Amino acid sequence: MHRLERGNQELEEDVELLKIAGLLAAKKVRRFRYLVQQKYRYRIKKACKTLGISHSGFYAYRARKPSDRQLENEFLSHKIHEVFEQHSGRYGAKRITYALKDEGIKVNRKRIVRFMLAMGLYTKGAKRAYKHYNKHHRTVAKAIPTTMRSWNRSIRR
After folding, report:
1. Which pTM does this prediction carry?
2. Element (H or E) spanning 104, and its range?
């Protein structure tokens, strides 16, 4: 009886893993990343077998140090967020690029756009001033010369 319950529990874990949208079709790195996040929820060897990846590859991925590019990306995302918050969300990618350039960090604007989208940073639009309507303010009538106005009156009669 205990063996059947254990087998049923294993099958439920497999089904739960397979239900996750696109995980089976995803690249190995994404599957590894998911298992690192959920390592206490599943047994690693069984989960690796279900997802079609080797458990030795998983442990190698987990032990791997971040690359220089990953470290640079983390640093850049931190700096972008810092500049964005410093200017109350009013700076877009172009202005952030110039601000980072002033700090001595050379980075492409398109890369900043990509980071901002990934972090969910959207700039606030400029506040629009309300233009009060004044029905007595007739600029068109004042712009027409007086001779033209008198000529227009004579035609209408």
Report:
1. 0.56
2. none
